[in-house]
């Protein structure tokens, strides 16, 4: 059966992330992916979870407390500043996810932007372990979403094939700008 977008994003990470890894959620939002990553890496791993929006940080914090997990570092800053928060220079990421767009049920004018998204992706790819995976869930129906989508496809289609494999997964017959996945594996 064909998997839905968010299920497939998690399936890809389940397959590549190991217990004990340091991993990244570039867009915490309501914390669903952060909590999912927390379970994947286990108590010896760590999740770095970014969001610029206070409401997202509070919502994710609430989920962390409800689930009593101790392996998440929540950071209220833009994901392009990732390198400022890496625990040690030798740290490598076992995997990462970015859910692009706006926070559902919140201020729709706070959206991810092409420049910061591309810088964050570049930094994430630098820090990824070999065989590590960066999964992007691209929502593009909002104001500015089309520009971000185009910038992403332009940048990722030029990544060196010897160093990265880039997959696109999405449904082509759904209405209203359906989201799709871009997954980048470091070789
Ligand atoms: N993954 C989330 C979840 O499981 O609920 C949904 C994320 S939502 C689609 C996108 C989030 O990106 C919003 O919460 C927004 O505040 C955040 N965001 C926008 N620009 C950002 C930036 N430069 N750095 C970090 N987060 C950003």
Automatic annotation (TrEMBL):
Keyword Hydrolase attached: no
BP term (GO), one: methylation
UniProt GO molecular function: methyltransferase activity
Pfam families in UniProt: rRNA_methylase (PF06962)
Annotated signal sequence range: none
Keywords: Methyltransferase, Transferase
Keyword Transferase: yes
Listed name of the protein: Methyltransferase domain-containing protein
